[in-house]
Amino acid sequence: MSDSDETAWIHWFCRQRGNEFFCEVDEEYIQDKFNLNFLDSNVTNYRCALEVILDLSSGSASDIPPESELEASAEKLYGLIHARFILTNRGIELMLEKFYKSGFGTCPRAFCQRQAVLPIGLTDNPGEEMVRLYCPKCNDVYYPKAARHSNLDGAFFGTGFPHMLFMVHPEARPKRTNKKFTPRLYGFKIHQNAYKSVDSPKDQNDSP
Nearest Cα to 14, choosing from 5, 6, 25? Predict the structure, then answer.
C-alpha cells in the first residue's frame, strides 16, 4: 500500500488499476462476524488480513507475516467478502450503478449493440476460474476485454450475482435478442450441408 496512511485500505484497493470491477464493501458489513462465517478456513493469515482490510493495528511484529504474503491474503479475503456483499441490497445497488454506466464493459457480440455486462464467476471456489462477463441480452459469457481484468478470480463475484441483481431489479434486465448471424454467399443463404465433405459414390461399372 503506497498511499498515505489516512487512506482506508478498502478505498485504496478498489482504486487500484485492475480492480475496477470491485465495489467498496461497507466496513459495518465486514465487522459483523456472521457475514464472515467459514472464510477463515479459506484464507491464510486470516486474522492479520482482516486487520489490514479494516485498518486495525496488528499485534506484535513477530506475529505479522511478510508484507507480500499478508497483502495477498488481504486481497483474497476481501474478494471472498465482496462475493457475499454484492448479493445484499446495498451491494446490489452499488454494482447496479456501475452497470448503468457500463463500468464493467459491453458485450462484444454485434447484435447485442454494446449492451452493458456484469462480472460473473464460473465457479464459487477460489483459484479455479478467472472472472467472466455476463451479457443479459444474449445470455452468454465472455472474457474481459482489458488484460488487467483477466487475473481477477471469478469467485470474488460468484456464480449467482447477475441473476440476483436482475431478480431484485427486473427493470434493469434488457429484452433478449433473437437476432442471429446468417451466413450468405452472393446474397443466398448457405445451406447447413454445404460444409459437409461429400464422398463421390463408387462407380458400380468400375471393375475391382
Answer: 25
> Under the phi-then-psi rule, with left for phi > 0, alpha for psi from -120 to 50, and beta for the rest, what region is 47?
alpha
- Residue extents of the structural domains in the chain: 1-15+23-86, 105-178
As a whole number of angstroms, the distance between CA 120 and CA 114 comes to 18
The x, y and z cell numbers of residue 122, run together, are: 464460473
Query: 72-116 pLDDT, tens per residue?
Result: 999 999 999 999 999 999 999 999 999 999 999 999 999 999 999
Q: Is 124 exposed, middle or buried (0-12, 13-18, 19+ CB in 10 A)?
A: middle
CB 22 within 8 A of CB 82: yes
Contact 149, 18 (CB under 8 A): yes
At the topology level, CATH places domain 105-178 in N-terminal domain of TfIIb (2.20.25)
What does the pLDDT look like over 143-201, one tens digit per residue? 999 999 999 999 999 999 999 999 999 999 999 988 889 888 998 989 888 888 655 45
Q: Which fold has domain 1-15+23-86?
A: protein kinase ck2 holoenzyme, chain C, domain 1 (1.10.1820)
Q: pLDDT tens-digit profile of 31-70?
A: 999 999 999 999 999 999 999 999 997 665 667 889 999 9
Is residue 180 within 8 Å of residue 111, measured between CB atoms?
A: yes
